[in-house]
UniProtKB/TrEMBL annotation:
Xref: InterPro entries: GHMP_kinase_N_dom (IPR006204), Ribosomal_Su5_D2-typ_SF (IPR020568), Ribsml_uS5_D2-typ_fold_subgr (IPR014721)
Stated name of the protein: Predicted sugar kinase
Organism (species): Micromonospora eburnea
Keywords, alphabetical: Kinase, Transferase
Residue stretches spanning the membrane: none
UniProt key word Kinase: yes
Residue stretches in coiled coil: none
Length: 368
């Protein structure tokens, strides 16, 4: 599996290209129900892949690993307006990730068969790219949701999750017209489109289970002060060199993960007890080889992980996990202060937020 080529197995594609169609697309182009929409769209922590052996692309270019996510109130703000002239999709001069914003708007415009010109402005959390928090997929999902709102939400939320995951791409340095087809399991889209701070996305990008986190819970993130600065191609190439480890972990532990999730962790979560879910996530990351597989994301990841284990074992947090392939760690806790101190003691930058239980929100008026 290490022989996979980024150029042949992950070929770039044109901005706005629909590579996987939307099932049951509207037969008649919908009419706009408004001329301007503003949304605040949450971020996500990818706490666990359900079967990491399936992070390699399926025969049709989809990814069937599944995901357990935690939605975070770290919003990106998107405004989409209908305008009279200019390109079909245009971005403001201060738009964050304008290439991704254009891609998302073009995708929805194409599948709906609409012709209004759209202007997009987006602001994102002040965080680096490629730290495991879904900045690219979150940007695409937020813009797509806003365009869908312009037309009265003709695409149902669950279909939109799958469509966006299967048409995901990430920016390539110095290329404004093509994207790289990086893995996408659907978590960033589901975090805003489907209510519930804790969610399970099935292998075919199907939102399967959702539950709120109780009041009083905090999310504490810990990330390197100087994360690796690489583009999507370099990041994907590094991950591809470690696909064998992901496959081994998934094949070895996938059945246990599924059983414990469905018969232990999720029933307890529904009753308000996060600790069994915390044990599953801790074992997956720290005992089943997940963090070792992800060590390419930062040279100090394994050393840092060893410094952080006590956060869970000393009961400072109900959940301690890595997000995606890292290098950001996440604690879900009622006592954020000690967790922040533990992250800082391990040399990490900390960020505190609340769970996002309600999906994305709509706001009136133009951004200032």
């Amino acid at each position: 599996m290490n022989s996979r080529s980024i150029d042949t197995d992950f070929p770039t594609f044109p901005l706005g290209a629909v590579r996987s169609t939307l099932p049951a697309s509207p037969t008649t182009p919908p009419q706009p129900v408004t001329t301007c929409v503003r949304v605040a769209y949450p971020s996500r922590v990818n706490a666990m892949a359900l079967d990491s052996s399936k992070i390699v692309p399926n025969g049709d270019g989809t990814y069937l690993a599944g995901e357990l996510l935690v939605a975070c109130d770290l919003p990106r703000h998107v405004e989409v307006s209908i305008v009279d002239d200019g390109p079909a999709v245009q971005t403001t001069s201060d738009c964050a990730h304008p290439v991704l914003a254009r891609h998302a708007a073009l995708l929805i415009r194409t599948v709906l068969g609409v012709h209004e010109r759209l202007r997009v402005r987006a602001t994102a959390p002040d965080l680096p790219a490629h730290i495991g928090l879904g900045s690219s997929s979150g940007q695409i999902a937020a813009v797509a949701a806003a365009v869908n709102e312009i037309y009265g939400r003709p695409i149902p939320a669950r279909r939109l999750v799958r469509f966006l995951a299967r048409n995901h791409g990430e920016e390539i340095d110095e290329d404004l017209h093509h994207l790289l087809p990086v893995q996408c399991l659907g978590g960033s889209a589901a975090a805003g489109l489907i209510p519930g701070a804790v969610q399970v996305i099935a292998g075919a990008q199907v939102p399967l289970l959702q539950a709120p986190l109780p009041d009083g819970m905090h999310i504490v993130l810990g990330m390197p002060h100087e994360p690796l600065n690489w583009d999507a191609r370099a990041s994907l190439a590094a991950e591809a060199r470690h696909f064998d480890g992901f496959i081994t972990t998934g094949r070895t532990h996938g059945p246990e993960i599924a059983y414990r999730l469905l018969h232990d962790a999720w029933p307890a979560l529904i009753d308000g007890d996060l600790r069994p879910l915390g044990h599953l996530l801790f074992d997956y990351r720290f005992r089943m080889g997940s963090i070792a597989n992800c060590a390419f994301s930062h040279p100090d990841l394994l050393i840092t992980a060893a410094k952080l284990e006590h956060i869970f074992s000393d009961l400072l947090a109900d959940v301690l996990t890595l997000s995606s392939v890292g290098p950001t760690f996440c604690a879900v806790t009622r006592t954020p202060g000690p967790c922040e101190q533990a992250f800082a003691d391990a040399g990490l930058r900390t960020l505190r937020c609340r769970p996002a239980n309600s999906g994305y929100s709509l706001h009136n008026g133009a951004q200032s």
